[in-house]
Amino acid sequence: MPLPKNGIPLYIQIRDSLRQQIEQGLLEQGQKLPSEDELAAEFGVSRMTVRQGLASLIDDGLLYRKHGLGTFVSNSNVERDHRRLTNFFESCRLGGKVPEARVTQFEIISVSQPVAEALNLTPGDPVIRITTLRTMNSKPVTLHDAYLPAVLFPRLQTARPEELGLEERHVWELIERSGYSLSHLTERLEAQLADEQLAQILEVAPGSPILYGARVLYAVDGTPLKYADCYNRGDKVSLTVELLP
């Protein structure tokens, strides 16, 4: 389909068209693109113009070339930089991806022993449980199961899930809007295999690799503000850490 003559450079129109197809899942990770000649015929432009548009997407990490084989769609990973305090939404947007979340559980429950220890609470104390399913470009990536001490967040105790605005923001923002300044986060990581229930939620096969993280978020005065169990698809999330001598 020839591109419109709207004053926008043709290679940018090609870039944006292919980017949109990738974000919408019409072009899937690992899929081979048509040849430059085929794309040139499809868009009604020269091969050089197509090459310019592809080069821009390669620079952005959305495409990659295999010598002698062609151009392919890159793996769509969330790259979490653990050298600084970042969240899922920020990491996705920095990578040019579209993050969203859906609240699947919002309730006040009695805290269990392991979570109580992490939050300096007594087993049985009330906590606010907020479970969200996070997606990237409309595909499930992470099941995030968070627990907040109810005593620290009185306004959240009477809130409704639709009032939280968690579709496009992180639980951290709820915490900051409650008046707390964030200091740091600790996380224990381990490899797991998806059971049938988690596999169904994350749309993977049972037994698929899962990167599990147990996280505790702290205020500047050292108060634990949030504990979370995070179940990340092993094919969608990568981490960067910095090790100092």
Can you describe what's shown?
The protein is 26% helix and 34% strand. It is built from seven helices and ten strands. It has a six-stranded antiparallel beta sheet with strand order 4-5-6-9-8-7. A two-stranded antiparallel ribbon has the order 1-2. The protein has a two-stranded parallel ribbon with strand order 3-10.
Low-pLDDT parts are none
Helix content percent band: 25-40%
What is the strand tally?
10
Overall shape:
elongated
- Give the radius of gyration: 22 Å
Sheet with the most strands?
A: 6 strands, antiparallel
Mean pLDDT across residues = 85
N- to C-terminal distance: 56 Å
Strand order of the largest sheet: 4-5-6-9-8-7
Strand content: 25-35%
Helical element count?
7
H/E order of the elements?
Answer: HHHEEEHEHEEHEHEEE
Structural class designation = alpha+beta
What order do the helices and strands come in, and which of them pair?
Layout: H1 10-23, H2 36-43, H3 47-59, E1 63-66, E2 70-73, E3 78-81, H4 88-94, E4 99-110, H5 113-119, E5 126-136, E6 139-149, H6 171-177, E7 182-193, H7 196-202, E8 209-219, E9 224-233, E10 237-240
Parallel strand pairs: 3-10
Antiparallel strand pairs: 1-2, 4-5, 5-6, 6-9, 7-8, 8-9
